[in-house]
């Protein structure tokens, strides 16, 4: 039978995978996850339209307040957060949420139905790039709640290791809008066809390429790094170093864009710990853990330098961690350089 000219939609792809899951486990799919992912896609389409209009509408410029991170909040951030909260509340599949833009857990009040999932998201990461037309993104992580559906969710539904995630992914608003997700059975990319308003399968079973030819780090922070981090970055820059020398530098300053490039072409992204505080900048719940889940499913790995990101038990919604993510061999080389330093 000739291959259909109609692309594979997100819904169709989830149903195919759920049938495969049902054959593997004998569990009959409820269709809840498929509906939830479609609602995330709807939110992504709405935000994509606004992001692409941002240069025209009076939506640029600072909204005049700072978020829980102490960062100036752009109007698109506020819009993106509101879009996700409202659409997920109405979905009937979410019992509790966490957002980079909101200090406390976000509930699902009546008349909405608290469903079986707990979702943490960064509604619009890379917001400092919004008004200079650089790619930005949404990052989401999905846990299956422990409590029964119909009852309010609890923070404990969110504060769980990334290894327990039911699904994770991101939407990148760039030259095209792509949704990339995994449920633990491979990483799949869908590109938005704005003419029909559908995300169509464009990258099935994404695997991070073998060669790690790029390093991605803000070298303006070199003076704040530990000696081991400074040594690692010098190593990967040096053409004669082995293994993994001679890498080229690429740094966009938008986590989703830097991560997506490395996922597609191979590379290592570092936002290392500050030597003085031992702390990182990026957030565990809705940046590091979901991207670590995606990276692992694509053959990569993510670490703080000391431990696997997916093994970490979050101690708060907005906990910050160092993040080293990308090709497994490069991340493990970083871990060895850190452990060599701490063992001296
Ligand atoms: P720096 C954007 O504000 C962000 O949270 C990530 O998207 C990005 O990777 C990082 O901060 C960039 O931080 O300190 O290099 O500007």
Annotated CATH architecture of the largest domain: 2-Layer Sandwich
Instruction: Spell out the CATH superfamily of the largest domain.
Output: Fructose-1,6-Bisphosphatase, subunit A, domain 1
Strand order in space, largest sheet: 3-4-5-6-7-8-9
State the name of the first-level CATH class of the largest domain.
Alpha Beta
Shape: globular
The tally of beta strands, per DSSP, is 16
Q: Tell me the radius of gyration.
A: 20 Å
Bound molecules: 6-O-phosphono-alpha-D-fructofuranose
SS-derived structural category: alpha+beta
Number of domains: 2
Low-pLDDT segments: none
Question: How many separate helices?
Answer: 7
* Overall average pLDDT: 91
Annotated CATH topology of the largest domain: Fructose-1,6-Bisphosphatase, Chain A, domain 1
Task: Estimate the helix proportion, in percent.
Answer: 25-40%
N-to-C terminal Cα separation, in Å? 64 Å
Q: Give the biggest beta sheet.
A: 7 strands, mixed
- Report the sheet-strand fraction: 15-25%
Element-by-element helix/strand order: HHEEHEEEEEEEEHEHEEHEEEH
Please give a structural write-up:
With 344 residues, the chain is of the alpha+beta class. It folds into 2 domains: 201 residues, Fructose-1,6-Bisphosphatase, Chain A, domain 1; 129 residues, D-Maltodextrin-Binding Protein, domain 2 (3-Layer(aba) Sandwich), CATH 3.40.190. The chain is built from 7 helices and 16 strands. The protein has a 7-stranded mixed β-sheet with strand order 3-4-5-6-7-8-9, with helices on both faces. Strands 11-10-12-16-14 form a 5-stranded mixed β-sheet, sandwiched between helices. Strands 1-2 form a two-stranded antiparallel sheet. The protein binds 6-O-phosphono-alpha-D-fructofuranose (P6P). The site of 6-O-phosphono-alpha-D-fructofuranose has 7 residues, from loops.
């Amino acid at each position: 039978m000739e291959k259909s000219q109609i692309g594979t939609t997100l819904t169709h792809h989830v149903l195919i995978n759920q049938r495969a899951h049902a054959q593997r486990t004998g569990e009959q799919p409820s269709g809840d996850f498929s509906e939830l992912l479609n609602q995330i896609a709807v939110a992504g389409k709405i935000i994509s339209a606004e992001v692409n209009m941002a240069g025209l509408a009076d939506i640029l410029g600072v909204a005049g307040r700072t978020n829980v991170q102490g960062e100036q909040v752009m109007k698109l951030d506020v819009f993106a957060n509101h879009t996700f909260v409202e659409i997920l509340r109405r979905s009937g599949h979410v019992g509790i949420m966490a957002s980079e833009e909101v200090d406390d857990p976000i509930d699902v009040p009546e008349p909405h139905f608290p469903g079986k999932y707990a979702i943490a998201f960064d509604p619009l990461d890379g917001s400092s790039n919004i008004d200079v037309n650089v790619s930005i993104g949404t990052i989401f992580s999905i846990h299956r709640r422990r409590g029964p559906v119909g009852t309010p969710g609890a923070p404990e539904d969110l504060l769980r290791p990334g290894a327990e995630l039911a699904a994770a992914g991101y939407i990148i608003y760039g030259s095209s809008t792509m949704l990339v997700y995994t449920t633990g059975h491979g990483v799949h990319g869908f590109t938005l066809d704005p003419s029909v308003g559908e995300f169509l399968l464009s990258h099935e079973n994404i695997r991070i390429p073998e060669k790690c030819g790029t390093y991605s780090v803000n070298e303006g922070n070199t003076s704040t790094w530990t000696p081991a981090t400074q040594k690692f970055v010098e190593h990967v820059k040096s053409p004669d170093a082995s293994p993994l020398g001679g890498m080229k530098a690429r740094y966009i300053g938008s986590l989703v864009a830097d991560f997506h490039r490395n996922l597609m072409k191979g590379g290592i992204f570092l936002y290392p710990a500050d030597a003085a505080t031992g702390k990182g900048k990026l957030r565990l719940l809705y940046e590091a853990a979901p991207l670590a889940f995606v990276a692992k499913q694509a053959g990569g790995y993510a670490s703080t330098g000391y431990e696997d990101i997916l093994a970490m038990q979050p101690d708060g919604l907005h906990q910050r961690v160092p993040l080293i993510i990308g090709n497994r061999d490069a991340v493990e080389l970083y871990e060895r350089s850190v452990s060599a330093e701490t063992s001296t």
